[in-house]
Amino acid sequence: MAGKEELFRKLPSVDSLLKEDQAKAMAGRYGRQPTLEAVRRVLDGLRAEILANPDAVAEEDFAKARLIAYAEESLAENFAPSLRPAINATGILMHSGLGRAVLSEEAGRALADVVRGYSTLALEIETGRRGQRDSHVAGLLRELTGAEAATIVNNNAAATVLILNTLAKGRDVVISRGQLVEIGGSFRMPEVMAMSGAVLREVGTTNKTHLRDYAEAVGPNTGAILRVHHSNYRILGFAGEPGIEELVALGNTHGLPVVDDLGSGALVDLKAYGLETEPLVRESVAAGVACACFSGDKLIGGPQSGIIVGKAGVIQRIKKNPLARAFRCGKLTLAAMEATLKLFLAPETLPERHPLYRMLALPVSEIDRRAKRAAKSLSKSLLPPDFALEVIDGESQVGSGSVPVETIPTRLLSLRLRGANPEDLGKKLRRQRPAVFTRIRDGALLFDFRTIRPDEDRLVEAAILSLFR
Fold it and tell me: For a pLDDT cut of 70, what percent of the chain falls above it?
């Protein structure tokens, strides 16, 4: 049995490893300094093993090819992007943590076109002069919503801040107490309003706000009336609040702008997909609001953004606010949003062309067929005897604050392994490439094929099989 000193003498030098062809190729791919550091880390690790337990060190541990391979694994991991593809098996269609809605193929092609080189972001083709970057989407938004004008910023919270800062900085903004919601990331509407410079003037109660509550709050320092979509919750039972038409009429009486923060921003009626109706942007515009704002990455299914539509004079004032530059979108957002909005020009084709509406329209029978096919395929493999697999009834969610009290019937692939911690199994799935995210309930991993794309079915099966290798 070799002693520690003898084992240390067997260690190859850093220089000798770097002279190997495999190491030279690594240096060309990752750079010489990172390669040098990776080789040193591997050798340091082997030295530590010799010191801790020399009897566990084998002859093959000193092979140059093996040591370089370890270094290459380390480099590959360090250089791998942290933002990487994932498979959404959770059943939450718009999963905030997984990037919300999936972009359409049209949006993907638009992104590919503009990343290759220069683009007409803010120059007019006819004149060659400076133009407005939001012109790429403004016309589409006017057509789809009926608004006089439109602009776009980097998210809906930014849109709210920009609007209130423009219309009501230092002045009261009247809002129902029941609409002081907390949105994702613990951001609360009162805090968002405070950042805008507006002064919160809450009226009514959590469950009930009357038009007279708004009217009594209006005074010389009132700058605007604000309605905010409830987003992640619903108040049921003895509850009520004025409609947007009533608020606009009140605003007109007092010469006050009415702002409608619609949250998800529905351009089509969700009743067509068997769901509760979300507030439609076109209806708010028709009611006469000064402006409405909503997310571009929720029910529209585009990139993260905040859209503002409304009266031309109001939108022009908003665009002149210095904050508009801080919140503006880049070419990638505009390219993807333009392509996404064009899909809504033919709403009848959304289930075929738009990933979100395709998932909403997917029949349970099709989900059941795919789940059973996966179960049958997995059952033919060599699985542990304590492994249990079945297809069960379940429910999907729209997510991201849209129709929060409703679910969609679905079928789930349920996986159990006796004696195994489902949290540990879930972590192993998330470490796959692509990462697989599931639900865990009653000790079982649940895979919802409504949010798993058809071309991902085999990848999910492979990820499940990897748990038992």
Answer: 96
Q: Is the pLDDT of residue 15 over 60?
A: yes
Q: Is residue 354 part of a domain?
A: no
Q: Which residue, among 416, 436, 440, 420, has the nearest Cα to 428 in the 3D structure?
A: 436
Residues 144 and 50 in one domain: no
Does residue 194 lie in a domain region?
Answer: yes
- The answer as to whether 388 is a domain residue is yes
Residue range(s) defining the domain that contains residue 243: 105-348
User: How many structural domains does the chain have?
Assistant: 3
Q: What is the pTM of this model?
A: 0.88
215 shares its domain with 299: yes
3-class secondary structure per residue, the chain: CCCHHHHHHHCCCHHHHHCCHHHHHHHHHHCHHHHHHHHHHHHHHHHHHHHHCHHHCCHHHHCHHHHHHHHHHHHHHHHCCCCCCEEECCCECCEHHHCECCCCHHHHHHHHHHHCCCCCCCECCCCCCECCCCHHHHHHHHHHHCCCEEEEECCHHHHHHHHHHHHHCCCEEEEEHHHCCEEHHHEEHHHHHHHHCCEEEEECCCCECCHHHHHHHCCCCEEEEEEECCCCCCCCCCCECCCHHHHHHHHHHHCCCEEEEEECCECCCHHHHCCCCCCEHHHHHHHCCCEEEEECCCCCCCCCCEEEEECHHHHHHHHHCCHHHHCCCCHHHHHHHHHHHHHCCCHHHHHHHCHHHHHHHCCHHHHHHHHHHHHHHHHCCCCCCCEEEEEEEEEEECECCECCCCCEEEEEEEEEECCCCHHHHHHHHHCCCCEEECEEECCEEEEECCCCCHHHHHHHHHHHHHCCC
Residue 177 sits in the same domain as residue 296: yes
Q: What is the pLDDT of residues 316-361, one digit of tens each?
A: 999 999 999 999 999 999 999 999 999 999 999 999 999 999 999 9
Is 355 part of a structural domain of the chain? no
Over residues 174-201, the pLDDT tens digits come to: 999 888 877 665 678 888 888 999 999 9
59 and 156 in a common domain: no
Same domain, 203 and 333: yes
CATH number of the domain bearing residue 234: 3.40.640.10
Same domain, 184 and 326: yes
